[in-house]
Amino acid sequence: MDEREREENIVLYQLLKNTVEDMEKQMVAVEQKMVELKATQLAIEEIKKIRAENEILVPMGTGIYGHGKITDKETLLVDVGANILMEKNPEAAEKFINERMNEIKDIERKIKNDMGQLANKMNEIAFKVNRTPPKR
Q1: % of the chain beyond a pLDDT of 90
Q2: Is residue 28 part of a domain?
Q3: Secondary structure, 3-state, the chain
Q4: Of 26, 72, 92, 119, which sits 20 to 30 A from 53 (CA to CA)?
Q5: CATH number for the domain including 34?
Q6: Does residue 17 lie in a domain region?
Q7: pLDDT tens across 94-122, in order?
Q8: pLDDT value at position 56?
Q9: Domains in the chain: how many in total?
């Protein structure tokens, strides 16, 4: 490997490293989304257990809650994307959440797979670069 190839490999290694770091950030976001979906799943389970007119705490924002009452526990509003809300019964809402969780798991698997492939490529490049000493 000549000096130009060595330098190209070093640049490629750095680009791959940056890509892996971006993917790690994506994984954090995916994991956070999964936590949110699991919390939603639990909330739906709880809604099914309570009686109409029970008082609940309604999240208003970060750390702020208001008091509210359940007037209809058989109809939930589900954000299906693009801020479009659809009425669904708790079972249909659970099904929707489970489908989203499966989609998130697929994304997580793909990111992990891609990160593994990039790590392998980085190892190959590092091996090539390290076995070729820089020219002085």
Answers
A1: 73
A2: yes
A3: CCHHHHHHHHHHHHHHHHHHHHHHHHHHHHHHHHHHHHHHHHHHHHHHHCCCCCEEEEEEECCEEEEEECCCCCCEEEECCCCCEEEECHHHHHHHHHHHHHHHHHHHHHHHHHHHHHHHHHHHHHHHHHHCCCCC
A4: 92
A5: 1.10.287.370
A6: yes
A7: 999 999 999 999 999 999 999 999 999 99
A8: 87
A9: 1
Q: Is 11 within the bounds of a domain?
A: yes
Q: Which domain holds residue 28?
A: 3-48+74-131
| Residues 126/10, Cβ–Cβ less than 8 Å | no
State both tokens at 119: 């790590």
Residue 60 lies in a domain: no
- 136 pLDDT above the threshold of 70: no
